[in-house]
């Protein structure tokens, strides 16, 4: 289970320290996703973001796949669990810009304000998560932590229920969500009915065996 962890203070690195860390980072990379330092001091590289979305997202219907509900030219559907996306970004890109880039890459029409980017760290057999502020720089965090995802990984989630900006949802989106929820509720109801019907059959069979004349 994830445990909330206090946000760590940002440590500013000199140009020489950045250069040394990039060299160390690239020497440890195993997937060829190396970082590049430019003459102006800005560096570029890759981050991987795992999508952990519980609610359906709204995309252009021509790009949608899987279980969905349609409304005009948009579709609401659930993104498959464990979906991971790789982004090429720079050290100047903020968390908010990374979220916007992810949504654009998936053709998501939802308001970026509905989502938050988290960092996940493993330490002493415990998993810590921390929601990043919009102004933090994910590539800097990746550089400092090194390339190993077990040391640091990024996760995109919706804001917690109490933090959701419901006014950011459009009427068609909310209607699509209700259609999907109604469909899921009916599916779960049918599963429960079949389960209890099977139990009832077994009980009646057992009772028939007990009261059967010898």
CATH superfamily of the largest domain: Phosphatidylinositol 3-kinase Catalytic Subunit, Chain A, domain 1
Q: How large, in whole angstroms, is the Cα Rg?
A: 24 Å
Mean pLDDT: 81
Overall tally of structural domains: 2
What's the architecture of the largest domain in CATH terms?
Roll
What structural class do the secondary elements suggest? alpha+beta
Major sheet characteristics: 7 strands, mixed
Write the layout of secondary structure elements.
Layout: E1 3-4, H1 15-28, E2 36-37, E3 43-51, E4 57-60, E5 68-71, E6 74-77, E7 83-90, H2 95-105, E8 115-123, E9 126-131, H3 138-145, E10 153-158, H4 171-210
Parallel strand pairs: 1-9, 3-10
Antiparallel strand pairs: 2-3, 3-7, 4-6, 5-6, 8-9, 8-10
Précis, in short:
The chain has 214 residues and is α+β, with helices and mostly antiparallel strands. The chain is built from 4 helices and 10 strands, in the order E-H-E-E-E-E-E-E-H-E-E-H-E-H. GO terms for molecular function: zinc ion binding.
Task: Give an account of the 3D structure.
- This protein has four helices and ten strands, in the order βαββββββαββαβα.
- It is of the alpha+beta class.
- The chain has two domains: 15-61 and 69-160, Ubiquitin-like (UB roll), CATH 3.10.20; 167-209.
- Strands 1, 2, 3, 7, 8, 9 and 10 form a seven-stranded mixed β-sheet that branches.
- A hairpin with a 2-residue loop joins β8 (115-123) and β9 (126-131).
- The chain is elongated, with a radius of gyration of 24 Å.
- Mean pLDDT is 81; it is low at 63-70.
- It comes from Chionis minor (Black-faced sheathbill).
- One of its GO terms (molecular function) is zinc ion binding.
